[in-house]
Write a structure and sequence with these properties.
Elements (H helix, E strand, L loop, with lengths): L7 H6 L2 H21 L5 H11 L6 H11 L2 H13 L12 H37 L4 E6 L2 E7 H26 L1 E2 L13 H10 L3 E2 L10 H27 L7 E2 L19 H15 L1 H6 L10 H29 L2 E2 L1 H8 L8 H10 L4 H16 L5 H7 L1 H4 L4 H6 L10 H9 L3
Parallel strand pairs: 3-4
Antiparallel strand pairs: 1-2, 5-6
């Protein structure tokens, strides 16, 4: 985790103190369940909760023990025994380390998902507000980076809203898939622990029991979780790239907010650079990079090896912390985005009316001209305009073949900008719901 790209709430999920607190809760709940089944004394379970509930675990002490034992869970259990006393011998009965580690990771990823879902909710709210603000703000739509036909800036933002709404649904599904508990023993057979213990711990920790584990929870769940984060990151990059392009000097239809006292360049005082969205592009690359090792973690040896362990210690915190930061940053960009309708209109007019070429093409076919001939006539008049030689409307009116089929008034009617926006309300209703 890089502090520069981290937010405290998400970072806290991955702190050693949080991790050890979750470990304790899993062990204590398991002991309580064992006590209810008559496997361990009830007073032992009560003592474990009494001594450990408000304990602050000594991370340095656990690290010290681990340097000797070379085993993190044993180090924690040893430290817990120092806190609880003799009754600690009833902790971890019939369990294996992965029961603790995998269930803890499920809790951490579930909590991380909750934060990410809240992040998307903030972004969705910002996109909805700005989309309605610019629902009918005309702008040029581009394909291949080239002017195509008119759209509205609100529709651009509505598209982003719909995409992130799908991202939210995927995150909700990924959270449900990752939120499983395994308290099933050394190879998942429950040989030394009753399945009811797993059910009890799962309920207490807000998880569901893993239907069949080996020594670990199957890593296809984790692969799907990190793949979902990667898709969300890709959607972040898509919107960030759009804003970066719109801020280019030659376009300048929208721009990141530039605060009082902000500096754009150490050399050129005039610069206002899209640094936030450029940063988001880089962060998206990193989140996607964490997806591949998660995929490779699926193929473990037999009932378990630990090739996945080092990977998850890195990608768990890094992917969630980075995506949390990126989503919050993107929401801020959208909330404060500077929008320039006058520049949008100027760009709409830049090609001398060529953006209406399809309407002319269709009108000619409706007037009886073959599509091939209609295309030839429209392109014949479009290419001089493309080279800066006149405007499209004037050339069309002066073309004898065109005017033989369409009157001047009919040609002029084809240049109505509002024609392109007649279904904006329908699209908005699809995206945001009917009012």
């Amino acid at each position: 985790m890089i502090e520069r790209y981290s937010r405290p709430e998400m970072v806290a999920i991955w702190s050693p103190q949080t991790r050890f607190r979750i470990w304790f809760e899993i062990e204590a709940h398991a002991t309580t369940a064992l006590a209810e089944l008559g496997v361990v004394p009830k007073e032992a379970a009560e003592t474990i909760w009494e001594k450990g509930r408000d304990a602050v675990f000594d991370v340095a002490r656990i690290d010290e023990i681990e340097r000797e034992t070379k085993h993190d869970v044993i180090a924690f259990l040893t430290h817990l025994a120092e806190i609880v006393g003799p009754q600690a011998r009833f902790v971890h009965q019939g369990m294996t380390s992965s029961d603790v580690l995998d269930t803890t990771l499920a809790v951490q990823l579930s909590r991380a998902a909750d934060i990410l879902i809240a992040d998307i909710d903030r972004l969705l709210a910002a996109l909805k507000t700005r989309a309605h603000e610019h629902k009918l703000t005309p702008t040029i739509g581009r394909s291949h980076g080239i002017h195509a036909e008119p759209t509205t800036f609100g529709l651009k933002l509505a598209q982003a809203y719909a995409e992130f709404d799908r991202c939210r649904a995927r995150l909700v599904a990924a959270r449900a898939e990752i939120a499983t508990c395994a308290i099933s023993g050394a190879v998942g057979t429950f040989a030394n622990i009753d399945p009811r213990v797993e059910e009890y711990v799962a309920q207490k920790m807000g998880l569901t029991p893993e239907p069949v584990s080996t020594q670990v929870i199957p890593r296809d769940r984790h692969a799907m979780f990190f793949a979902t984060l990667a898709v969300v990151a890709s959607s972040i990059e898509r919107l960030a790239t759009e804003i970066r392009h719109l801020q280019r000097t030659e376009v300048l239809e929208a721009e990141e907010y530039f605060s009082e006292g902000q500096k754009g360049s150490s050399a050129m005082p005039h610069k206002r650079n899209p640094v936030l969205t450029e940063n988001l592009t880089g962060l998206a690359r990193m989140v996607r990079a964490y997806c591949l090792p998660a995929m490779e973690n699926v193929a473990l040896w037999h009932e378990r090896d630990i090739s996945h362990s080092s990977v998850e210690r890195m990608i768990g915190p890094d992917a969630t912390v980075t995506l949390d930061f990126a989503l919050a940053r993107l929401a801020g960009v959208v909330e404060k985005l500077l929008v320039y309708p006058q520049n949008m209109q100027k760009n709409l007019d830049r090609l001398g009316g060529l953006i209406h070429s399809q309407r002319v093409l269709l009108a000619l076919t409706q007037a009886g001209v073959s599509r091939e001939d209609a295309y030839r006539l429209v392109q014949r008049n479009a290419m001089p305009v493309w080279r800066g030689e006149g405007d499209f409307l004037t050339l069309l009116k002066a073309d004898d073949e065109v005017s033989a089929k369409l009157s001047a008034a009919e040609i002029e009617s084809l240049f109505d900008l509002g024609y392109h926006f007649k279904h904006v309300e329908t699209i908005f209703a699809r995206v945001f719901g009917a009012r």
